[in-house]
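I am still getting used to backbone structure tokens and would like to learn alongside you. To get us started, please write out a protein record for me. Start from the sequence, derive the backbone structure tokens from it, and show both lines together. Once you have written the record down, we can walk along the chain together:
***
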Amino acid sequence: MHAMDRLRTVRFVALRRLYLRPVVGTTAVTPLPSPLPSHAIKGVRIVSTISAMSTRISVSCLFLVATCLTGPLLAATPDHLPGPLFRDGIENIADGPVSVEDAARFLAQATFGPTDADIAHLREVHYQGWLNEQFSAAPSLKLAYHDWVADVLNEGTGTTTLREAWFLGALGGPDPQNNAFIHSDQLRQRVAFALSEIFVISDQNTLLAQFPNGTAHYYDILGNNAFGNFRTLLEQVTLSPACTST
């Protein structure tokens, strides 16, 4: 059979199926001609699938309308967060987390990995309290560590020095030059790390390899702007000597 004839047959079967659906309250349907050609059977299967999908969509829309009509309509909030119908199990930021598992999952995403003490602390202060602590925590600066190694310890600096500074901020703990200062800005360091994978420089560049203080200063730009304005971050990254040298 010619391709155009097959298309006409499929369209005929589809229209016949569509217009001979039973009316509500009846069960009689005019049967389709039998036997059907193989291409017509495929057309019936396609139309049947579409009909079943339409039924499911109609039921979903009916449920959505019924859900909306069960309570008073509320004015839309002027934020960019998903509406209540699109939230799935999101806890109140002032009350959660409700379980150890939720606390561990949150901290695994917001830090470089939690300890038991971190999980217990989060459950005590809740999400909002923990975020407030992180926003107010003093930033761990890579350049300050680099200068301490170079100027106080009188040691040579390089990639190893920068790696030590990075782990100090990522893992937290007492500062080696001042044990009274505890590095606790885990969220800032996690965001700075994410930004460093977007705004990339490399110490494979000869000039940056010779001046690790430039790389440390660049990373501090990312850390200092982790919670700030993105426009300001773009400007400072663009004007950074490390970026222009890459």
Summary: Confidence is low (pLDDT under 50) at residues 21-30, 36-76. The first helix runs from residue 3 to 19. The two ends are 65 Å apart (CA to CA).
